[in-house]
Amino acid sequence: MILQNDLLLRTARGELTERVPVWMMRQAGRVLPQYRTVRERAGSFITLAKTPELAAEVTIQPVDAFDVDAAIIFSDILVVPEAMGLPYEMIESRGPVFPATVRNMSDLSHLRVADAESDLGYVLDAIKLTKKELNGRVPLIGFAGAPFTIFCYMTEGKGSKTFSVAKKLLYTDPDFAHALLQQITDSTISYLQAQIRAGVDLVQIFDSWAGILSPEQYRTFSMPYIKQICDLISDVPVTVFAKGAFFARHEIGQLSCDVVGLDWNMDPKESRLLIPDRVLQGNLDPCVLYADFAQIRAEVKQMFDAFGHQHYIANLGHGIYPDTDPDKARCFVDAVKEM
Question: DSSP assignment of 143-209, as one string?
């Protein structure tokens, strides 16, 4: 299918473009009242994510509302551990919770490498339906969590400020940690390859908890597994976003990825020096969108002054917050286009 707007794809491939593309991490539609209507109709977040027609509907909502240059498929990074045999629940005001955890080799024996086609077919169906309904308007982004981030949830059983249980295992049972990380990696590679076959135009790897590791631990327990994924995804551009891993920017830039995502704590000019041969993506603080319209436009201009106008994808430095005013989100997108 020929894309009517392929700006993001051309930029990700390193081409010079007439304008900087813009989209918003994570599910930008969750700030919209029409998203909440669909969410209520579904009854739960997991039902929404597992119903292809509804997932496709909320995937496209931000394209309609904000005129962004890409859609990102509505899903969750935790579908991978569920496909491996570790189901989770999404509890209001608490977030994801795993009734069971994986903390030793015996626990590991109960898991499997996910079969993307059978275990995650609902995501693939949502991708196919979304592509059909987008009808070439903009590219569709697929994604998965980085193996270490998934490891954190599978071992802790829930979110955490420190992920001390997960980090303890890196010190006390590194053999188990590497075994689980490899199983997650194998599942993730299969999953992303299946997303590409289903029709996504780019993929992004979210290492949301990269920043809790020391540089040495990151080189040992995260980077090698992300490298495996990048080395085996070559059909579409790959973005690596490692939140908090400011110390690993140069090394991430050495991976066989096309785009490196930056959070709002990573200086763009310094990052250009550390990662000279990759497209950069980011990095407006999501809290800027609580400011007034003039302040948002001023912050976008400052961001452009730092990043420049080529080899750059405008985005937030992490996911948009659910209580963001949709008009402020639209102001961000419009300001990028006006630059």
Answer: EEE-HHHHHHHHHHSB--SS-HHHHHHHHH-HHHHHHHHHHHHHHHHHHHHHHHHHT-SEEEEEETT
